[in-house]
Amino acid sequence: MGQIMKMKTITPNLLLGVALALTAFAPIVANGATTRLDARSGSKMRLEGTSTIHDWQVESPLILGYLEVGPNFPLEPGQSVTPGKVEAKGEASVVVKSLRSIKDDGRPYDDKMDDKMYHMMSYTNYPKIVYRLTELTLKEAPKDKDAPYVFDSKGDLAIAGVTNSIAMPVSVLPLPGGRVKISGNIGIKMSDYKIEPANILVAKTGNDVKIKFDWVVGQKKPAAETK
């Protein structure tokens, strides 16, 4: 005769215990959800460098991409958050040909400089500058609700087909309407991306370049209800 297996009787107490366990687990799942933020208008990236005659600067008014963040990322002004690592990943990109040389007062500088810059960055093969975020850590919360949150970030920056890992501080400022402005700057060398300093017009560019940016992202608005 085979061994007869006895089934446990399902009692009300057992059902109550399972229900309580699921209830306790549910907030953990909900709180672990990520929020997607997509690029919005109001962004700007600026490159600044030197030459044998004068300093130069170029700007793009558009930064594309997205950011996916965990629950410890501030989405509202004055939001209470705990310093530490934040679940985050994302990608930001700038089309090379959207960059334009400008004078100190913001007026266009010279189309020939723009064309030389595009070719220096091999824009036909690599039409975008791309940054991929790999790590984000909140250093400190702001002293008041109008001040930015300060983060340390790590990621990979790809220019002209060369990718390097970079680390830089960034500030995060929640804005009205579900938007967030992320700002930062970092110094790089052209040679690290196999871009040789070159003669542009009558000047020779220096090797050091500073990247500055303000990237505005936000949650998608829900579709308007049809009446």
Mean pLDDT: 84
Tell me the series of helices and strands, N- to C-terminal: HEEEEEEEHEEEEEE
Q: Biggest β-sheet, characterized?
A: 8 strands, antiparallel, barrel
Helicity range of the residues?
Answer: 10-25%
Question: CATH homologous superfamily name?
Answer: Lipid/polyisoprenoid-binding, YceI-like
Measure the end-to-end span. 70 Å
Number of strands: 13
Radius of gyration: 25 Å
SS field, number of helical segments? 2
> What is the CATH topology descriptor?
Lipocalin
User: Which architecture does the CATH hierarchy give at level 2?
Assistant: Beta Barrel
Summary keywords:
227 residues, mainly beta, Lipocalin, 8-stranded antiparallel beta barrel, 2 helices, elongated, disordered N terminus
